[in-house]
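Model: Ready when you are.
Researcher: Fold this.
Model:
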Amino acid sequence: MKIAILSQDPSLYSTKRLKLAGEEQGHEMRVVNYLRCYMNITSHKPTVFYNGKPLENFDAIIPRIGASRTFYGTAVVRQFEVMGVFSANESQAISRSRDKLRCLQILAREGIGLPVTGFAHATEDIDGLIETVGGAPLVIKLLEGTQGIGVVLAETYQAAKSVIEAFRGLEVNILVQEFIKEAKGADIRCLVVGGKVIAAMKRQGAPGEFRSNLHRGGHAQAVKLTPEERSTAIRSAKAMGLRVAGVDLLRSNHGPVVMEVNSSPGLEGIEKATGIDVAGKIINFIAKNATPTKNRDRIQY
């Protein structure tokens, strides 16, 4: 098979691992900077160009779209879809998961466990917004934040009010969520591929840090999931329409709650924590489902 990895940086761990895993399985792998792609949008011969040449005869693509590049990145993915190329994650599912508010609303509609979450526009409604999630302490999140950036723990009512007013003064969109104290600064990342959890790790935040992101000094170890946690992760990925997803859970007193569903989950932390060849399993899934092209909509889960 001929597979393109849509990534801005070929030196990233996840990009390198996917390329190597594909080559080890005998596939022709190519890393393509999607920001350097341009498109001919036409009905008779839609084309994606890269370095002045058309990208032709690809059987599949693996989108590794940065959060800040979602609009253009998904446009490139969508163009490949118009050309009949199989995508590990489809453009619509990527866009859906990147909108944190929309993601939570979809999960809520499916009855999936979530932390109590509030959203409002006007600063005049701050008091009601804080009461909606049960008061302080609470977590305030920028909708556009990633890797723990733009996430604040407000331990008192006044602190929460001040932070919300400051964010709203900058005219950015925020969510407020209940603080799951019993999680003790830890979360669980479940890697879902083709409707199955193939790996899971527990991430523990650094001392004094309520965020568990490995980029912020946290550490990770393999974890055994409960049946309910496994089911929640699978249902969450399915609700978002993602074939490959990182689903982040917290263990609360009322069961697992979903914090985020990621369409381009990093592979380094979970491969090193679990020893599982996650990249190889992603390539296996693509090889199983990408051919023949005419059957691309009949995905085998």
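Researcher: Now this one.
Model:
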Amino acid sequence: MISSQREPTRHGDRFFPLARYTLSFSKDFPLLPLHWHEEAELTLIQSGSCVYHIDLCEYPVREGDIVLLPPAVLHSAGSFPKYRMQSESFVFHLNFLGIQSADICSMKYLLPFSSRDLRFPYVIPSDHAANPKLREIICRMSDLYLQQQDGYELLLKSLFFEIFSLLLPYRLTDAKDADGSFSKSQSDKLKSVLDYIEMHYPEPLSVRDLAAICCFSEYHFMRFFKLHVGMTCTEYINTLRLEKAWQMLNKDRTPVLETALSCGFHNLSYFYRLFRKKYHMTPKEVLRQ
């Protein structure tokens, strides 16, 4: 995979590649955009409910559910209109657990998990037999991470291994996951399109060219994209261009006209209108701040 929806954030650092995050959906932040990262992800839904889209499949989750994602899985999440959702996540690179070591833990568990030869359910619901113990472990991990007393790194590492050992009896077989190959194929097609958009967003982009990447008709492609990304192709491209423009204005202090042209907007009034709708301020106001 190239860069497309790969999350640019480094989670932790080279020597401690792990970070904890909290997420709260609200009216102003109802969506976690489609993305992927090299790290695995472990999430506890603390309250409320939402819908995860993982490898293009839909997974409703609610309070007490746990989400476990292997590396490089395309995923997003969105809240229900009437419900807020709060969650706590640990995003961790498998290097933290020693995937590069030539030992039995790496060869038998970590490498297969990374390549998805060893598969667990993406969602472990609150009524799952392993869920209570997993929630207990995640709460302990949270305390360790926040307090950061001597040796907390060792304890965190051991708890991740405990999670894997708890889930082993519930690994997925081909019979339980018969549609996995189809889902992965569709996911790879979408990743290819997102990669292409990321690399060429300053240029004119047509539905015909993007559909050709998937070997779809334009009609099929537009339905496919809207279904799995949650917005039309044009909306997605404009959103990406606006995010790039925000970075240029806010971080690089690039003049407005240069920013618009560099991000693929060749109509300045159209750029202003979309920018203000998304950020509730004009590009010039960003520069002034």
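Researcher: Key takeaway?
Model: The mean pLDDT is 87.
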